[in-house]
Design goal:
Layout (H helix, E strand, L loop, with lengths): L8 H15 L11 H7 L4 H13 L3 E4 L3 E4 L13 H7 L4 E12 L1 H8 L6 E11 L2 E11 L15 H9 L5 E10 L2 H6 L7 E10 L5 E10 L14
Helix pairs in contact: 1-3, 2-3
The protein binds 2-amino-2-deoxy-6-O-phosphono-alpha-D-glucopyranose (GLP).
């Protein structure tokens, strides 16, 4: 293991001190104390100080200018992509969201869903299957699973619109964050029929675990989007 990967006690304290300065009062482009002053203050070598400063530089917290010193960087722009529901996503594209063939049931979670929702495989989940449409055209096949304990009676409710609106308005559950993965796939016969495309058509498989602000796992969802109709659009930024 390289020496730099094992900070000594002094290096760790120095790092803590410097991040405290950066987070607590200094503004972007403010000057940091010099290497010499830091070495004296922390009774350590300039090499140790330089390593800590370099590390913070690599993390984008500081930048160094030859001959002028070390300065606080501009804060990084979060590389986040908006968390949308199907309804808000379609509306943002100027399309009218809808649903077909909604089926709701209360079943045992089973091993896979239980693991994703951090509940026992024997615990009950509400499973919703439906084809989501945009301007009446099938766009996405959804399987959503929610712990039944969080949404009592959802399987008997009369609703046919936005699940996230029902979660919020009926149960006071608000999705704040999701872990999501997107991968390419081809459609098997049943999914292709549901989405009105030929078997083996390309699709996106989106897997999402949605959390509320308390970190509770509200939903595990598998959504299959037609690749001929859907694109993933995002704004991305270059880090300084
Ligand atoms: C997307 C997500 C699903 C989520 C759904 C909620 O499709 N992939 O995980 O269940 O949005 O959308 P709505 O509130 O329109 O039902």
């Amino acid at each position: 293991m390289p020496e730099t990967a094992r900070p000594t006690g002094k290096a760790a304290r120095l790092r803590e001190y410097l991040t405290g300065l950066i987070d607590g009062g200094l503004q972007p482009h403010d000057r940091m104390p010099t290497e010499r002053d830091l070495a004296e203050q922390f009774q350590t070598t300039r090499l140790t100080v330089r390593r800590v400063l370099d590390q913070l530089g690599h993390e984008g917290r500081l930048y160094r200018t030859q001959g002028a010193g070390t300065f606080v960087s501009e804060p990084r722009i979060a590389k986040s992509v908006d968390l949308t529901s199907f309804t808000t996503d379609m509306r943002a594209r100027g399309l009218k969201p809808g649903s077909l063939g909604t089926h709701v049931e209360c079943i045992a979670a089973g091993a896979e869903v239980g693991a994703e929702l951090h509940i026992s495989p024997r615990d009950l989940v509400v499973h919703i299957t439906r084809v989501r449409t945009a301007d009446g055209v099938p766009m996405c096949l959804e399987h959503c699973y929610m712990p039944a304990a969080l949404v009592p009676g959802l399987e008997t409710l009369q609703w046919d619109g936005s699940l996230y609106e029902v979660l919020s308005q009926t149960y006071g559950l608000n999705v704040e964050k999701a872990e999501q993965s997107i991968r390419a796939t081809v459609l098997g016969a049943d999914d292709a029929t549901a989405l009105s495309v030929p078997e083996f058509s390309p699709a996106f498989r989106v897997q999402r675990v949605a959390f509320d602000a308390r970190g509770r796992r509200l939903e595990f969802a598998l959504s299959t989007y037609r690749a001929d109709r859907y694109s993933y659009d995002m704004v991305i930024y270059r880090n300084p």
